[in-house]
């Protein structure tokens, strides 16, 4: 509240007036020309004040050697400062006691507190070398004068404030409000603002007024011994009296519970001034004696009442001490958890494995909660399992659990200890909850009856890249060998446990993210490398195509004059044969004829490179082609000192190629390998089968190819052979043939370490389909005895044309009547004009998606069974399809046997007498 408004709120005219004798005496003592006699003459006019001054002068605190009987003697014994304190104390006490007589019993605690703060301020002033301890005493005595005026003018509001404070409990929600906050909330102002106005109204010295106004300001640096820092000294004294229950600063009959704020303030003040516990105890012991002495002088001392107050204060201090011990224990436990958490974060760096990370978490939890056993599991996305570590009495053991529910049952049967069984049980429960959407974030399991296992699991954020597999890991702690957390407070343990596991979960998610980014970076690097290689191959192919076109044109232009040369050679041979001596001429003509044949062969090779013959594809077994090529190589050039190491498997999947062209490629490679090993060596042939390809490797132990030449060996006319040993077209032709057969040919070599050529050819996928058809035909014959009056008719609706056609062909081979549609609109059109028992339906399609088609079918043709086949649908979409009437949902890629089984179940569920066979 603004000060001018506060002054208008208070009725300053109704404030009690201090005795004129007291005010005049204080003014005289402030003057420079004051004498003992002038002040004594003034004080003689107030007999009550004179009596109390003489009482104080003869007290043990002053320690006079002889009895003091006159005011001048008293002034000489106590000094001006002490005399000023006595006069002001007596005046304030008598003035306000007379005004608040009905509440005299409530004022006792307040006067005790005020005198206690005064005595404490005086003792602290001496301890901290203040120039005027008496001034500190007076400031302490008057520091809460604002409360007296507050009570006098607003008794109802002040009583409400006192009731609020008397109900204070350290565990109450009121703990967050300081007494000043309560005053402000109820009255709109507080006693320190009132104190400032009172000090100015009574014309108090500035140091006293500032102490009444600023004694609640926090102290953040050591108090300097000067009057400018007197409010900070009073703050220190006030905090000491409140925490040691010296009276009450409010009108309460019993000492209230001390607010936590004052304990924190005291701890800070003691630390700033480097005081020991013994120093504080000595100060407070002197304060209690001084309070009793001053109260006797002021005339309201009652030993029995004081002892009751002391006992009440001791009870409060005892309760506070017990609560403080409990809080200290909880604080130590929390600090232990925080230290272990910090250590865990430091160790969970990005370069450790998931198993090592689990070991760090398990070890940190054991140290944090003083337990002996802890199991931490982390999901390994690459391995599709949970990996982790079991900490058992400081010994760590690697643990693995499958991520699939079906495998968890088997793993549980072979678990070697109870904590693994607990982990498997919890993992199964969490997986079920996730599948049914019952949980979306981390939480802690309740402790089972008769068990001291505490378990939690780590969940990824719903918006992270793991939203489809949110479960990142699990933590199971065995508290059977640890502290009795039920007795020590499960709520605190739960809070600490959740805080630590939350930190561990975030660290694990960061680690998994780092590993995923690292994997993606590796893939990106590999993709970049492959893209660079593909670009090089594309450039090479473009260049070779250009060379091929040039070669084709050149061959055409060369063939015409070469034909003329050939015809003239034949005419010359006939003419020369008629001459009697023609031996030399015939030899020369033969040389020309041989070179003409050589040119013709080169032209044929050029044409083979530029315009390869279109391959005639058929399914063949590569082992047979390799065997034929080896036999031809041996027949053309006996393989002297060359060992053949044929490591091809006896059975290889079929490939769809032109067998004669591929045989030519292998023959060329074998001949090149033999020519590269003139002194003998080993020709090695190996084979590798992939998902949809077969790789055949032909390697030799010859001279090899220099790195600078490796990228040019498939260029036409490039050769590493000696002059006259080759045209440089063989490998170029081989490369073109392999590409026309939908394959690739690459070379690997190091100079002096031999060369390796790798041919990759596509498998014959239709062969597997034919094999399935044969199996289904066999099954069909076995089931021929079953009579089904109606043939099951199926509609396949999928925009992936190749998949749709394969599914149709497969289901037809299984004996079903099958139609296909390549989008939702076409599917609905087929349904309107035909009768179908089962529809295989994709969700993501152009024009009209699967959800719309499903709704239409269930509305118009409810008897038709719909089986969803999808690869991109989310879990929510899958649930929605079942909710809308789909019989089942199959995720791509799926097994064909699974499709047949689902269709059979759908047909049986239809309760109609239909079958795949007529």
Essential attributes:
alpha/beta; elongated; 918 residues; 4 domains; Beta-Lactamase; five-stranded antiparallel β-sheet; 12% strand; 32 helices
Characterise this structure:
By secondary structure, the chain is an alpha/beta fold. The chain has four domains: 3-301, Hypothetical protein af1432 (Orthogonal Bundle); 340-520, Beta-Lactamase (2-Layer Sandwich); 612-763, Heat Shock Protein 90; 788-915, Response regulator (Rossmann fold, 3-Layer(aba) Sandwich). It is 58% helix and 12% strand. The protein is built from 32 helices and 19 strands. The chain has a five-stranded antiparallel β-sheet, with helices on both faces. A hairpin with a 4-residue loop joins strand 1 and strand 2 (385-392). Helix 13 crosses helix 14. It is elongated.
Instruction: Give the helix proportion (percent range).
Output: 55-70%
Assembly form of the protein: single chain
pLDDT < 50 runs, ≥5 residues: 442-450, 784-789
Please state how the strands of the largest beta sheet are arranged side by side.
3-2-1-5-4
Q: What's the rounded overall pLDDT mean?
A: 76
Q: What general form does the structure show?
A: elongated
Structural class: alpha/beta
Using only C-alpha atoms, the radius of gyration works out to 52 Å
Please summarize the sheet with the most strands: 5 strands, antiparallel
Broad CATH class of the largest domain: Mainly Alpha
Determine the N-to-C terminus distance.
97 Å
Task: Please summarize what this structure is.
The chain is α/β, with parallel strands linked by helices and 918 residues long.
């Amino acid at each position: 509240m603004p000060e001018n408004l506060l002054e208008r709120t208070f009725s300053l005219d109704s404030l009690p007036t201090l005795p004129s004798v007291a005010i005049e005496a204080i003014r005289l003592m402030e003057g420079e020309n004051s004498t003992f006699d002038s002040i004594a003459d003034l004080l003689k006019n107030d007999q009550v004040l004179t009596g109390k001054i003489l009482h104080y002068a003869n007290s043990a605190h002053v320690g006079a050697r002889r009895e003091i009987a006159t005011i001048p003697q008293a002034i000489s014994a106590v000094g001006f400062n002490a005399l000023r304190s006595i006069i002001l104390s007596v005046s304030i006490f008598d003035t306000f006691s007379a005004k608040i007589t009905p509440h005299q019993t409530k004022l006792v605690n307040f006067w005790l507190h005020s005198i206690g703060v005064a005595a404490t301020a005086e003792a602290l002033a001496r301890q901290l070398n203040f120039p005027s301890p008496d001034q500190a005493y007076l400031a302490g005595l008057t520091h809460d004068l604002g409360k007296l005026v507050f009570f006098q003018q607003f008794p109802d509001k002040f009583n409400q404030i006192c009731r609020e404070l008397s109900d204070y409990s350290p565990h109450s929600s009121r703990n967050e409000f300081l007494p000043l906050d309560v005053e402000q909330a109820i009255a709109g102002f507080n006693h320190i603002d009132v104190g400032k106005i009172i000090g100015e109204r009574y014309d108090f010295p500035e140091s006293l007024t500032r102490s009444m106004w600023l004694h609640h300001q926090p102290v953040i640096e050591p108090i300097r011994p000067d009057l400018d820092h007197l409010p900070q000294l009073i703050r220190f004294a006030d905090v000491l009296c409140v925490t040691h229950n010296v009276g009450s600063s409010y009108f309460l009959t019993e000492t209230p519970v001390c607010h936590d704020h004052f304990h924190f303030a005291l701890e800070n003040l003691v630390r700033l001034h480097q005081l020991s516990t013994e120093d504080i105890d000595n100060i407070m012991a002197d304060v209690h004696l001084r309070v009793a002495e001053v109260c006797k002088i002021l005339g309201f001392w009652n030993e029995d009442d004081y002892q009751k107050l002391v006992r009440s204060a001791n009870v409060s201090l005892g309760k506070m001490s017990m609560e403080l011990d409990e809080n200290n224990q909880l604080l130590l436990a929390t600090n232990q958890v925080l230290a272990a958490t910090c250590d865990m974060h430091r160790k969970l760096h990005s370069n450790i494995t998931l198993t090592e990370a689990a070991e760090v978490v398990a070890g940190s939890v054991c140290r944090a909660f003083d337990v002996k056993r802890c199991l931490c599991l982390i999901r390994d996305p690459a391995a599709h399992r949970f990996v982790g570590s079991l900490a058992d009495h400081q010994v760590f053991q690697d643990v693995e659990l499958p991520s699939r529910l079906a495998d968890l049952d088997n793993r549980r049967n072979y678990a070697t200890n109870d904590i693994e069984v607990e982990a498997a049980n919890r993992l199964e429960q969490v997986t079920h909850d996730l599948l049914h959407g019952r949980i979306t974030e981390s939480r802690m399991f309740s402790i089972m009856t008769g068990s001291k296992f505490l378990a939690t699991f780590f969940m990824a954020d719903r918006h992270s890249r793991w939203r489809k597999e949110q479960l990142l890991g699990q933590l199971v702690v065995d508290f059977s060998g640890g502290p009795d957390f039920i007795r020590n407070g499960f709520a605190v343990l739960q809070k600490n446990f959740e805080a630590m596991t939350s930190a561990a979960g975030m660290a694990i998610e960061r680690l998994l993210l780092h590993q995923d980014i690292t994997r993606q970076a590796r893939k990106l690097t590999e993709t970049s490398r492959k893209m660079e290689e593909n670009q090089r191959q594309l450039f090479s192919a473009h260049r070779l195509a250009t060379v091929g076109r040039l070669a084709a044109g050149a061959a055409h232009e060369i063939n015409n004059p070469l034909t003329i040369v050939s015809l003239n050679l034949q005419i010359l041979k006939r003419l020369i044969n008629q001459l009697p001596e023609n031996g030399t001429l015939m030899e020369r003509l033969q040389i020309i004829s041989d070179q003409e044949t050589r040119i013709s062969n080169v032209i044929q090779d050029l044409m083979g490179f530029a315009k390869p013959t279109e391959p005639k594809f058929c399914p063949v077994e590569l082992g047979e082609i390799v065997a034929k090529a080896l036999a031809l190589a041996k027949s053309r050039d006996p393989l002297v000192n060359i060992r053949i190491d044929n490591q091809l498997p006896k059975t290889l999947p079929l490939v769809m190629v032109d067998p004669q062209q591929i045989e030519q490629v292998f023959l060329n490679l074998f001949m090149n390998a033999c020519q590269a090993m003139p002194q003998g060596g080993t020709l090695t042939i190996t084979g590798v089968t992939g998902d949809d390809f077969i790789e055949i490797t032909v390697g030799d132990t010859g001279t090899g190819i220099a790195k600078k030449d490796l990228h040019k060996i498939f260029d036409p006319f490039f050769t590493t052979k000696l002059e006259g040993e080759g045209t440089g077209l063989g490998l170029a032709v081989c490369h073109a043939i392999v590409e026309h057969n939908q394959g690739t040919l690459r070379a690997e070599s190091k100079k002096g370490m031999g060369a390796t050529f790798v041919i990759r050819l596509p498998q014959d996928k239709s062969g597997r389909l034919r094999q399935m058809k044969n199996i289904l035909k066999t099954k069909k014959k076995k089931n021929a005895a079953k009579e089904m009056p109606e043939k099951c008719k199926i509609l396949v609706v999928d925009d992936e044309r190749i998949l749709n056609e394969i599914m149709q062909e497969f289901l037809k081979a299984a004996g079903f009547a099958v139609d296909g549609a390549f989008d939702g609109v076409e599917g609905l059109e087929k349904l309107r004009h035909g009768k179908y028992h089962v529809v295989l339906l994709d969700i993501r399609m152009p024009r009209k998606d699967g959800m719309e088609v499903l709704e239409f079918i269930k509305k118009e043709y409810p008897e038709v069974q719909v089986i969803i086949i999808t690869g991109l649908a989310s879990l929510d979409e899958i649930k929605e399809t079942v909710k809308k009437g789909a019989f089942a949902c199959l995720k791509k890629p799926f097994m064909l046997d699974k499709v047949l089984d689902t269709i059979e179940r759908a047909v049986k569920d239809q309760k109609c007498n239909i079958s795949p066979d007529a």
